[in-house]
Amino acid sequence: MGLFYLNLMPLKLRLLGMSNSANSAVKILIVDDSEFSRKIVAKILVDEGYNVIGEASNANEAVDILNSNSDVNIILVDIIMPDVNGIELARKIHKIYSDCSIVMMSSLSQDHIVIEAISAGAVDFIKKPFERQTLLDSVQKLSREIVKKVEG
Amino acid sequence: MDIVKNLNQTIKHLKEKHRKDLTTLLPEELKIYDAHLLEKKEVIRTNHLDAIHFENQFKQNFSVVFGLSGEMEGFAICRSQNDIPQDLFIESMNILIGNYLSSLDENEQIFSGLLAPLLFYPEKQLDLEGQNHFYKFSQRLRLFMQESQTFHANYNLFGENKCYPVTITFILKFKGSEYDWRNI
User: Fold this and answer.
1) What is the pTM of this model?
2) Which residue of A26, B18, B78, B105 has the fewest CB atoms within a 10 Å radius of its CB?
3) Is ipTM > 0.90 here?
4) Other beta carbons within 10 Å of A99
């Protein structure tokens, strides 16, 4: 039992420290009407080994992707989008896929909007433009929580 | 109810009386991922523009218009040269205007939200859908410009190894404290 424990420890530490291979277990969806922004976010995450399972340019596309990939762990959602804005989308997603962590992204960062985003179910808020590390810090923190939850 | 109404009017009056020059809160410089926005020169106020000026501009250049809704409402009309990478242009304007509105709230307690952009492609003016889109917006702009203030801000957008001049025209009206930024 002791040997088994010792053998598993490095793996567990690696998972908690989130190596690139562990990152690949984290499924991420990006929702932003700006292709420019989606590509930048996707590149940063893919470079770190995260599994970006899809990109959506509006709320309807996001819901379609989620309907066929219900095990998405993290959704990054822009607020300013046509038709259905990111906060309304977050509210909808949070009701149906409550296990999924929602991170809002926006150039608007007024308190009212941040509060509304959090009450819609978002767990984090990233102000645009952001540094690469700001995005990674947010996703890494959530990934660690996801891994811990999976490990029980 | 009347007390609340009177109080709101007093607050609105005080805000208007003590308001700073709001153009000074425009960002001078912004790093946007791999691109860079730099303010080119002083903000220019003008009373000499009308909706026809913009209608002509929309026919010549790709333009992006953001609606502003809230205590300060109106439009931010963004123009550049036609070869500007459109996605970089739209996102950088979204970030610049969004940051400006956040700064207005933080410094002057004026809350406004930003709406999804309307895009005007010169070539689209030729088809029916493009003409309808253009006509509806022109009508709104004509009405709105009768009672609003206008100023321009010029920037250089450095991206994809090139520099693109960008002009943003803000057409704004101070509406007061009854707002819902999601309503348009």
Assistant:
1) 0.84
2) B18
3) no
4) 10
